[in-house]
């Protein structure tokens, strides 16, 4: 079984692939777009993305999953869960009707009655990419799922949020320590990937993708089944689940 975790890095997708048992080989690659990632590594049983899937609209102006994720990550990491742009904002971006921050924020406000933050607006291009792929190919809905990095680490860390921001030196070390409880080669792999990409991928993105890929591993002896918040996710207007997946240690 093959597991993939991917996060955005400077406009590309940085992905980690774990093959078979976690004692076996892992690989890392940068992909310019999600379609190429899925085409190249489509043999994976699970591809988890650190990007929202399932969009709010006038009928469902909020995503329950975001509220639940913030509750679980309080008090330290709740601010890492950004409001997700609306369906109208994503569609307007895709059509070219709204490309500036001001236009996107106005479109968002008209549909769900709130402006976009700069952070949320910065995710629009990649959210649109994910949404387009999954709308075009419903067969991918069970394979390609949303996995927020901090919820992944919350689960791996026995339902406790990380203490440090991911970009701080302490945050990178803390996350590697958590991953190392499940895959003994985590730090060696991290250092190898750093050398491989020569600083083109930030340390925090490497740990995020590795933690997300670990969450995607289907039969880790120390981890339970793949779970989601909420347990009964909403579905958006196109049938996409609004959820975040995670795993907890076996008890």
Secondary structure topology:
Elements: E1 2-9, E2 12-19, E3 26-31, H1 34-40, E4 46-49, H2 64-73, H3 87-95, H4 101-112, H5 118-122, H6 124-136, E5 144-146, H7 149-156, H8 169-180, H9 186-197, H10 203-216, E6 227-235, E7 241-246
Parallel strand pairs: 1-4, 4-5
Antiparallel strand pairs: 1-2, 2-3, 6-7
Helix pairs in contact: 3-4, 3-6, 7-10, 8-10, 9-10
Q: What does this protein look like?
A:
The protein has 10 helices and 7 strands. With 251 residues, the chain is of the alpha/beta class. It has a domain at 2-53 and 144-148 and 169-216: Nucleotidyltransferase, domain 5, CATH 3.30.420. The strands form 2 sheets. A 5-stranded mixed beta sheet has the order 3-2-1-4-5. A hairpin with a 2-residue loop joins strand 1 and strand 2. Helix 8 runs parallel beside helix 10. The protein is globular, with a radius of gyration of 17 Å. The relative contact order is 0.20. The model has no long low-confidence stretch (mean pLDDT 96).
What is the count of β-strands? 7
- Structural class given helices, strands, pairing? alpha/beta
Percentage of residues in strands = 15-25%
One letter per element, helices H and strands E, the order comes to: EEEHEHHHHHEHHHHEE
Write down the CATH class of the domain at 2-53 and 144-148 and 169-216: Alpha Beta
Q: What is the overall pLDDT average?
A: 96
- Measured between the Cα atoms of the first and last residue, the distance is 23 Å
Instruction: Using the alpha-carbon principal axes, give the shape.
Output: globular
- Give the CATH topology of the domain at 2-53 and 144-148 and 169-216: Nucleotidyltransferase, domain 5
Rg over CA atoms, rounded to whole Å, is 17 Å
Main beta-sheet strand count, sense and barrel state: 5 strands, mixed
Question: What topology, given as strand order, has the largest sheet?
Answer: 3-2-1-4-5
Assembly status: single chain
């Amino acid at each position: 079984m093959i597991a993939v975790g991917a996060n955005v890095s400077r406009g590309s997708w940085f992905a980690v692939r774990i093959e078979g048992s976690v004692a076996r080989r892992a690989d890392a690659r940068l992909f310019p777009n999600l379609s190429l990632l899925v085409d190249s590594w489509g043999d994976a049983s699970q591809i988890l993305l650190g990007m929202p899937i399932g969009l709010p609209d006038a009928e469902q102006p909020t995503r329950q999953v975001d509220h639940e994720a913030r509750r679980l990550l309080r008090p330290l990491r709740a601010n890492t869960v950004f409001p997700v742009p609306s369906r109208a904002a994503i569609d307007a971006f895709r059509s070219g009707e709204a490309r500036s921050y001001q236009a996107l924020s106005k479109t968002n406000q008209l549909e769900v009655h709130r402006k976009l933050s700069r952070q949320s607006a910065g995710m629009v291009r990649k959210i649109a990419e994910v949404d387009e792929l999954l709308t075009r190919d419903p067969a991918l809905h069970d394979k390609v799922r949303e996995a927020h990095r901090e919820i992944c680490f919350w689960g791996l860390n026995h339902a406790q949020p990380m203490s440090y921001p991911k970009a701080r030196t302490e945050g990178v070390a803390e996350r590697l320590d958590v991953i190392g409880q499940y895959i003994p080669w985590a730090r060696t792999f991290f250092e190898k990937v750093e050398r491989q990409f020569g600083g083109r991928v930030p340390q925090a993105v490497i740990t995020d993708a590795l933690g997300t890929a670990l969450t995607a591993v289907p039969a880790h002896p120390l981890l339970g089944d793949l779970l989601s918040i909420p347990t009964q996710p909403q579905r958006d207007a196109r049938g996409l689940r609004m959820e975040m997946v995670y795993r907890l240690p076996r008890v």
